Amino acid sequence: MATESADGISAHMRGLTVTTITAVAGIGAAFVSNAVASGATDRIALVAVLGAILVQLPLLRGIGILDDDFSGKDYLYISFMTFALWFVSWGVLLTAGA
């Protein structure tokens, strides 16, 4: 089939997997930031989001998603989606006082 890659994963399933992992990682990083940071101006919270981005790359490589077809645009997508979900989720946690 034309929409399948060499290992049998369709392009749609591949995109869905990457998006799900980045969203979960961003939300998880928000909870970690909320636990370790003293407030919104504490820069230690950035370590959580950077760690979440860096942990995803070996994870995606391990499940067979990250291969030679990945380009700089894909790495930028992973980084941006993780950051965006972290930013929004941590903002909600900060205003909720959780």
Q: Provide the domain count.
A: 1
Q: How are helices and strands ordered from N to C?
A: HHH
The helicity comes to over 70%
**Which of globular, elongated, flat, extended, rod-shaped describes the shape?**
elongated
For the report, how would you describe the main beta sheet? none
Number of helices: 3
Strand content: under 5%
CA radius of gyration is 15 Å
Task: Name the poorly predicted regions.
Answer: none
**What's the mean pLDDT score?**
87
* Secondary structure category: mainly alpha
| N-C termini distance | 48 Å
Total strand segments: 0
Account of the protein in words:
Helix content is 71%, strand content 0%. By secondary structure, it is mainly α. The chain has one domain (11-96). Helix 1 crosses helix 3 and helix 2 packs across helix 3. The protein is elongated and about 45 Å long. The N and C termini lie far apart (48 Å). The mean pLDDT is 87.
Helices and strands in order:
Blueprint: H1 11-36, H2 44-62, H3 72-96
Helix pairs in contact: 1-2, 1-3, 2-3
Q: What would you say about this model in short?
A:
The protein has 98 residues and is mostly helical.
What labels would you give this structure?
98 residues; mainly alpha; 71% helix; 0% strand; elongated
